[in-house]
Structures
1.
Amino acid sequence: MSSSLTIYNSLSRTKEPFEPLHPGIATVYVCGPTVYGHAHLGHAKSYVSFDVVVRWMRHVGLKVKYVQNITDVGHLTDDADEGEDKIQKQARQERIEPMEVAQFYTRSFYEDMDRLGVERPNIAPTATGHIPEQIALVERLVETGHAYEAGGNIYFDVNSFAGYGKLSGRTDQEALQSGGRVADRSDKRNPSDFALWKKAEPGHIMKWPSPWGEGYPGWHLECSAMAMKYLGDTIDIHGGGMENKFPHHDCEIAQSEAATGKPFVRYWMHNNMVTVDGVKMGKSLKNFINLKELFNTFEPLVIRFFILQSHYRSPLDFSEAAIKASQSGFEKLQETYKRVVETPEGGGQIDVAAFDEKITDALNDDFNTPVAISVIFEFAKALNGALDKGSLDAKSKTGALALFDTFAGKVLGILKNRNELLAGQSGQSARTLDDVMAVLLELRKEARASKDFATSDKIRDLLLQRGIEVKDTKEGATWSRKKA
RNA sequence: GGUGAAGUGGCCGAGUGGCUAGGCAGAGGUCUGCAAAACCUCGUACAGCGGUUCGAAUCCGCUCUUCACCUCCA
């Protein structure tokens, strides 16, 4: 009947059937944000995408253990022995403690993700909270000869690990060395070697004692240490943004597999970037779209819907026109859902199962949310056709609502809360509003019955001016709040 | 230079050997007192040039263009 889950594995560059290491349980690690600024649209694309990944796996019956870190050690602006800690820099600019920066932006991040309907990970470990684990991993690598000390820093010896660069395809050491910038001033044996632990320079605030003196962990270390701590030496899925394939993820593979001798990750998943006018959006470029600002113009769920209308592995080009188009479609789906809820039971029918299967197939095919959404649109069209005839039978109505609740709601998270949709809000003021609206619509109905269209149109127009839209249907007039 | 990805109708955006993607915008129609909403109909798109094939947007080659990564970044 229905297909089973396949995932595009960045490591093999093919779609593979998903078979977790331990049947029925999926371990998932996704690179979290570095908390030194507010979240932007790029974060939204990544975490909304993986939110659907997790939600879908849970829907198909897997028990998912989802870990997403918070990077609160601000790594350097480059991998050489220069540059400033990003969080420390922000702290200096804001004249506050580095940890205050991290806490502030961590809260900000979750605020934004909550509004986007992104479910919280099961475990959200911080880098600063796992310094001992990171030190232990470095010690293990030093003991096994995969790492060495030089000038107070500990580096991973890339030549000690066969297959370094297998994820990014960057295995040509000659090419890796061609940059040459690092080689000039570093103690590294090989320019590709990367820092596991760095000695704290004078003035460096975020530092910890270690067997090698006061210092701080290298950029790539925390993910390996925390993923293995909470999910085991071999994890099922590791996700993150494409730009982290190299060097970050290749380094994670090297240091983890060198330490354990076991495969680190079974399925690598990488989401594509958000672009603005065709150019990548990034923190270092000035073109990033701050989510809090975007939420002033568009509902968070519209942003989520916009993101899911393209595939996670495709780049998403941001433009106001594109989001507005999504908004129209989004509202159309909410309206259809509302119509189904409110429709009387009668003779109309719809074959829900066929749509259900198509959506399931789409999501099983590497989480193809755009296709799933297109099927929901087809479903809505079929439903509206049936509803235009006046009713739905009990089975069709129940099935249709279940489809919406399951796929649009539980899995994709693009369905408004039913109460919000139906009444605007619940509670006494809403009931009062309903009563008042009923009176107005009754007056308008009487005016229309006596062909006093001047009055009936005036009621409609005045309401519309205040954002309340009146629609005449076969069952009488209905109203809804319309956004500006 | 190296490593990857991609170029689809007005816009966004799936698909990937033959069978309608979908959304938005636009045109016509049904319904309506008029609207709105909904529904129906309408676009013969796949960068270019060759090749493979009965058949290619989909495979192969070349060309052009774009983007990402190779320094922090979801």
2.
Amino acid sequence: MSAPCGAISATRISVPLHSMSKKVRVRFAPSPTGGLHLGGVRTVLYNYLFARKHGGDFILRIEDTDQSRYVAGAEEYILESLKWAGLEPDESPERPGNYGPYRQSERKPIYAKYAQKLIDAGHAYYAFDTPEELEVMREKYKTGDNPSPQYNHTLRKKMRNSLQLDPAETRALLEAGTPYVVRIKLEPDQEVAFTDMIRGVVTFNTTSVDDKVLLKADGMPTYHLAVVVDDFLMEISHAFRGEEWLPSAPVHILLWKYLFGLEHMPHWAHLPLILKPDGNGKLSKRDGDRLGFPVFAMNWTDPRTKEPATGFRETGFLPAAFDNLLAMLGWNDGSGQEIFSLDELVEKFNMDRVHKGGAKFDYEKARWFNHEWIKRLPSSAYSDQVLPLFQAAGITIPAADLVQPPTPGPALMPEFPPVFGDPTLDGQPMAIGFIENDALPSRFQKILDLVKDRCHLLPDFVQQAGFFFQAPATVDLDAIKPKWTPAKTQFFAELIRQLELSATFEAAALEANFKEMAAAAAIKPGELLMPLRVMLVGAKFGPHVFDIAAALGRDETIRRIRHTLSLL
RNA sequence: GCCGCGUUGGUCAAUCGGUUAAGACGCCUCCCUUUCACGGAGGAAUGAGGGGUUCGAUUCCCCUACGCGGUACCA
């Protein structure tokens, strides 16, 4: 993985692999143009994991150099998304460190100096071509073989720039305030090679790269200049970004060489793309709409088009699951393990095992990850998020059901131990939340724990547990009527009497008693279990029927049996 | 067109020259459960094509095909 040595050719630029002696500082640098999408969050995640693992800093830098694309609220949205995902930056516009400002628009004065330095050294030049002239040029030189002519070492000879113009003419143009851009001057036929942490040595020939604009007519830098200057000024040690940036890497390498020296350049890693599930190509918001799954971290409505997009948060994903599934989209630790807590990812993650190829997003698998996390976490970890969902569905949870009993003595703890029954997870950080939370679960939380095995998404809880708090609006009589007999009516009448008398109302005792009664009545328990379930739940689903009865309590259980009996 | 990057079951993927080519999701069957799940046991399903190198290629090299990305005063 060492960079090719400079001796291969006189014009070859190779990048030395400097040691990781300097402090790890990484950055996520989004442009605030809309919602934060899956690929973006994954880039954040990899940055975050890398920083944490190496005791470094994770910086959020807002790349808002294109005023025409600026979208109000996008920055706040990004911040909130990161907060939700638990991936908060150490330094950001809202939380400045010693390297501010953290918005490029606020750094505008900084860039001109570096552009000037490049011009003075002969590595950049003024170009006075108007956008219209550029359009004309592209049309004029367009051929079947070359559909998009580039402003490069050949074509720049035909354009209006300080390389062609007489120095006096250039000066005059500048003094007259003629709009101009600064372009990098690329010498043809140079090999530019660098070592990508994921792809190994990547080589480009400058002949195929154009003279990119560095400074725009409005004085703002383009991404190319800004990223290099800011990464230097912010002392970024490792630069991770999407694969779509790979083709412009040679420009950035050259800029580093001209401006700051290759020995200061960060290590690069170009992350594989996240692809749409069907067909090919980058996953986009459109695919989510089309296929019915979220693509953004949180709900996002474009302030201009008013076009809404749903988020993973609102769809009912747990942050732990979201991070977990994102991490696995392009990385694995080689062991076959798939469920990782954030802390565990910090420990195990490394760039060497990141894939080169893009991964198609599989929503079914994403749901599976969420399901796993819902099962593994105690409901106290997400009951606060689930509660509003019940309310939104018109189901009121009594305040008494939300209070947690006082701290239990050790003897009471076994009531809810199976949460971490999976031995492979024992002792893992994810259990900490449970251990720290030494209060007994509220009734609401107990009920969530009772049904969580069948929930993939948080809103599933409403469907699965709603009947505990609200008597079913309809009872599926068709499920019991066909096989109903007077003997069964008798049985349930007797059952009510027994329930009224029973000393305790605990599942195991209820079940034992129920079966005794069934035997006495000479009816197979199975014949009676389903009717009881339908009476309590309203339909054929839910946890064990005696767990339901116990959770419902004596009065409500009897009330529901009576109600159904009256309907039969 | 040109440049760059990719390509192991439907999907995510392990393998770092020798394996019956792991595992997971999804799908199917069975067990558990007289509900739905969870859990358990099985099953179907894979190296883009062609050349090399090698005693031996999924693995290394080359070519082709295909896909993606870039080719903006957008990032």
3.
Amino acid sequence: MEHLYTKDESSSADQVYQRLRRLLIEGFYPPGSRLVEERLASDLGVSRTPVRQALVRAAAEGLVQIFPNRGAVARSFTIDDLLEMYDLRALLEGHAAYLAASRITPAQLSRMEEAATELEKSLTYTFERRQDEVHFLVEHNAVFHQTIAEAAGNQRLITMLNQIVAVPLQFRSFYWYRREERQISNFFHRSILNALRLGDGDRARAMMREHIFYGRDVLLQSQRAESAPAALDEE
Amino acid sequence: MEHLYTKDESSSADQVYQRLRRLLIEGFYPPGSRLVEERLASDLGVSRTPVRQALVRAAAEGLVQIFPNRGAVARSFTIDDLLEMYDLRALLEGHAAYLAASRITPAQLSRMEEAATELEKSLTYTFERRQDEVHFLVEHNAVFHQTIAEAAGNQRLITMLNQIVAVPLQFRSFYWYRREERQISNFFHRSILNALRLGDGDRARAMMREHIFYGRDVLLQSQRAESAPAALDEE
DNA sequence: GGCTGATATATTGTATACAATATCCTGAAA
DNA sequence: TTTCAGGATATTGTATACAATATATCAGCC
């Protein structure tokens, strides 16, 4: 058996894609900005050819929009887009949690355990920069969620979740802002872990869904509070 | 508001992709066969450049696998792959049916009605070639299912379903083989329609899930009966 | 001044050339 | 006969050139 992934992963040109993806998610190319191929090419130190492929891939993933003969644009998200995505995330991750309950291995459980613990301890950490903190949180949170998807044992489900979760970090960072919300989030993690340990798929799914809907509501609230819908520019 | 789709649809090079996709789904390039760029290029009457992009896109969609420096291969499906896909289809289409129940328009309902009726009437039709019949059935069936996805009103859900349903026709054609199975399938269509008309989301979802699982079981049975797992070549 | 059309510029889309890599084939040695 | 090395061939990966298209600029006209 060879590589699991369908994409040309770990190849050289694949790195262009990975970097572009990162730049988009981290908000270096903010939503709505034009992605001129030549510019990206010089930014990334390659020719337009691999850039083009990366853009096509990113478009398939929904990170950019390509308009024929008019170029690519970093995708911007409306409130409705976010709602759609959270709806699907709840569905897919809930299902993943359900499946994982009957298949998860001890190694995977302890990996999740560790991630959850790190997230809890980090409430007392102090970070140099706010950005470092967000990175830390996003990273460990990703481990938690990805391990569940992995434990579900459905490769396509993983692919789909990766697509959905590929939302610019700008949006997700709100989530981690307040202490109270982080504590609730940690509580959800513990509940999910418990359900998985007990092999209770229904409860794992229910908790996961609540966890995600909670995140959605926090995000929506912060969006409303923030600079109003201006940040989410509709075309 | 501009185009709904993220891809560079309806553009010129996009057609290369559409044609490649069709060739793959219709089994012209059978699962497991190598997709040499030059060959595709001459087959499609273009240079390697647009072919390459089409391949990248098809890989993102899961129709082909790209191995770094070793080219693309028409994806082959194992039994487990099919099970994974049907599992996700049940989840996503079930959800779509649930959402559609509260949003579907009369126009959409009558479109589905029409498709269902055509499928029923076709039991008495006689077709020139078996292939024509399969095409007819697949086409009307697609209308039925796509309308539900559309009525669900979640663009991402549509995209995901398109990805999942992009299975080589070779597999799907089994489904339509026997009269009894088609009748049961038609019955499911009517049940789903009823539930949608009544706005009963739970029932619509349940029926849709059964419908899809039934299709899965028919497929699996035919696979087992057919040339054994040889047709589903593992690498 | 504002509109219209023509030209210039910027950018995308495609083809081709060449480099990098993998695969195949041949022949010699064990 | 099998195995391995080395070169020949096939194919992918990238850069670049040019064509096609869209956008911007500006002169002329009302």
4.
Amino acid sequence: MNETKEHILRTSLKLFLQMSYKDVTMKEIVEKTGLSKGAFYHYFTSKEELYKEIVNLFFSSGAIDYTRFPGDSLKTFYNHYVEYMRITFHKMYELVGVSKDGKVSVNFFLIMFEAVGRFPEFLKFELEQHNKDIDAWVKVIKHAKETGEIKTVSSDEQIANLFLYCTDGVFIRFVNSDQNTSYETSLLNAFDSIYSNLKA
Amino acid sequence: MNETKEHILRTSLKLFLQMSYKDVTMKEIVEKTGLSKGAFYHYFTSKEELYKEIVNLFFSSGAIDYTRFPGDSLKTFYNHYVEYMRITFHKMYELVGVSKDGKVSVNFFLIMFEAVGRFPEFLKFELEQHNKDIDAWVKVIKHAKETGEIKTVSSDEQIANLFLYCTDGVFIRFVNSDQNTSYETSLLNAFDSIYSNLKA
DNA sequence: AATTTTATACCGAACGTTCGGTTTGTTGTT
DNA sequence: AACAACAAACCGAACGTTCGGTATAAAATT
């Protein structure tokens, strides 16, 4: 892809991760990119088109590739998951940059919610990803039951959901907190809690 | 409070629950309320003032009153919690109204995130509420441990967090789904899963 | 090799529209 | 008469977008 276009995309993603669609103005986009209005409209037909491309980019980069996850034990799996999340978030934060106090003013759910609300066709991205998540977790949990790593009356799906609910829930807590405890620490703590109550 | 002012507040809350701050225009507010601009600015000095009042209203109505919750057993407590959520959500949905297909286009997190992002002073509302939540859950969990209702190596706070993470996580899943399964059903299912793995 | 043509990247003023907000005037109540 | 409650016309600023034009360099023609 063109270098300038990529520059616009990256700069705009920063903005759309911090503000709503309408909050981000064309003025700000061209100022932050260092380009002119004319240059922008040479690469994109509209602000809406740019937004859609960015959301696509965002959803793609958020998709988890489970193929390289260890599947031998649930414990190593969820530890790997937490580490994967740490790296993914770190990349995002690096892109956006954090404020001096270290607090993060970025909320991934915000862009996700607004994108789906504005263009419902993006919902299928989310559903697909969730199905992949469930499948990956169920597979590992099933295996952990068979090997005797864990023991529970709950179904594989129920346990999988529990872990995934925490992924979202912990993040919500993280954004709505003073952010003194890192996301990955809280997530690992939550996972450990679930796990220790499943231990055979 | 004045009837007309309440009418403006209620009508605007509907809008702010479905769209971002900037998406909601003064034009739409006066159209939906059936009033004129002059009438609106008779009751509010600005759109921002209205927004802040609405967010206050939203946070207040979202605050959970735990004083009437049963504290004798964890199971009855979380069942009561789910029922409480059901009623709270039902009230909100009733206020906003649902589309013909029954799907809900309302996202409570959206207004919460945007309000905190726009006016950081609202964050303390969230922190206060979360502390109250934790306290209430910890108390019940502690009691459940003492009576022998549950048995676990996890701390009271860890278990409390688990339940609360699910509250948020299940809701996120609900909005980002086809919404064929109700929120309270999914939440109860999640709570039951946690509980059954804590059972003595 | 020199010259013309064409394509790409970019600029910034200007456009029509919409924004939140104000002013002025009318109606109804006390 | 005074004031609250509203309506309607209006305001300047800001919005996303368009448009005429420039700079540069590669491609085509002579």
